[in-house]
Amino acid sequence: MLKVLPHPSPEGETKLALIATRKPGVDFETEKRVLEILTQVREHGDEALVRYTRQFDAPQMGVDELTVGEQELEAAYREVNEAFLANLRQAIANIEAFHRQQLPSSHFLTRPDGTFLGRMVRPVSAAGLYIPGGKSGETPLISSVLMNGLPARLAGVKDLALITPPRKDGSVNPHLLVAAQEVGATRIHKVGSAWGIGALAYGTSSIKSVDVVVGPGNIYVALAKRLVSGEVGIDLLAGPSEILIIADQSAKPAHIAADLLSQAEHDSMSSAVLITTDGKVAAETVLELEKQLENLPRRDTARQALQNFGAIFMVHDLDAAFALSNNLAPEHLELQVKDPWSCLGKVENAGAVFLGDWTPEAVGDYFAGPNHVLPTAGTARFASALSVESFMKRTSVISYSRETLEQDGRAIMQLARLEGLEGHAASVGIRLKGDGA
Fold this sequence. Notes:
The protein is 46% helix and 15% strand. It is α/β, with parallel strands linked by helices. The chain folds into 3 domains: 4-24 and 239-368, 3-Layer(aba) Sandwich (Rossmann fold); 28-104 and 121-234, Nitrogenase molybdenum iron protein domain (Rossmann fold, 3-Layer(aba) Sandwich); 400-433, no CATH class. A 6-stranded parallel β-sheet has the order 1-11-10-9-12-13, sandwiched between helices. It has a 5-stranded parallel β-sheet with strand order 6-5-4-7-8, with helices on both faces.
């Protein structure tokens, strides 16, 4: 299924280019449909939301059911077990503890001449969290609720709206409803896809608009977020999931294979790559992948992902491995090497790094604490994980005294005139001459 490729080599470079340039196909017709959906929501509000929801999700949905009511919220707690609630709350505690360290603070400085400068940091007023349906509500994406909702809550967002497609009967999975309440969602709406994004961006009678929209979704959701960007802030435009593992002779092929499959099962566009310095590890990983695939419920998806965008590269040494990894800038990077700590400084581009044999990528997805909303498709070269700051605004504060403006004014006027902006220069000059006092 996977061929071990030497790197560098012509065949290896061809495979590498295929992985690096993979993108889900977006045709003009799909984008046109999404734009039409957004236009319908902007112009017709709730009527459009109900029409699309009846067509694609819940045939009997009414406008008065677009928002989850108190009775449904209370009933959700009775439908989940104590073990789930305990695990959920521990995950929340871990994620909160990590993200609390990200809280930025306002800062100010003064100078002897009376100048006052600073930066005010404030949360956005409202944020919207998009949570996909997950097999018609049967596989609720709890981790997405936590990773998107908790940074917003810690940032101090007052209005936290969560939207998710309803199940066919118009309900929402109780586990998702409990998670939403535990992270502090102030309202939950039963709308999905591009029309849900449109509702958050433009607002309707039932759904108030927000300032920032975050959360994963299919191509319709991703396109809708891109099209409303500028109307509202958005998080990352995430591509298919990806994992890259660097392994030496100390690595366990069974563990490598399991971790590669953990990403390959997401989607047929997912990428799973091993870079190793050891031929035996490479060969045994191929065997383990075949063996473990047989017991994987999503084996058809995983097999297709591995065949299309999976790879095992053989390199001469770890320096070559890290050079290749930094070029790919993976979403998830695992270091299954004898001394991962000594190698951490070699990592230049990665969304998240997982050190050692006891740290599978899944611990980051659900429980450890750092955010799992990460840059994909090579964007880790310049982008970072979702954070508390994703829900905050930074405002500059400037105050000059008369003496300071007299001191700096001529320099400001010269720079303004060099740019051809006489009005800018005049706004300083009128004060220096004393006119309008």
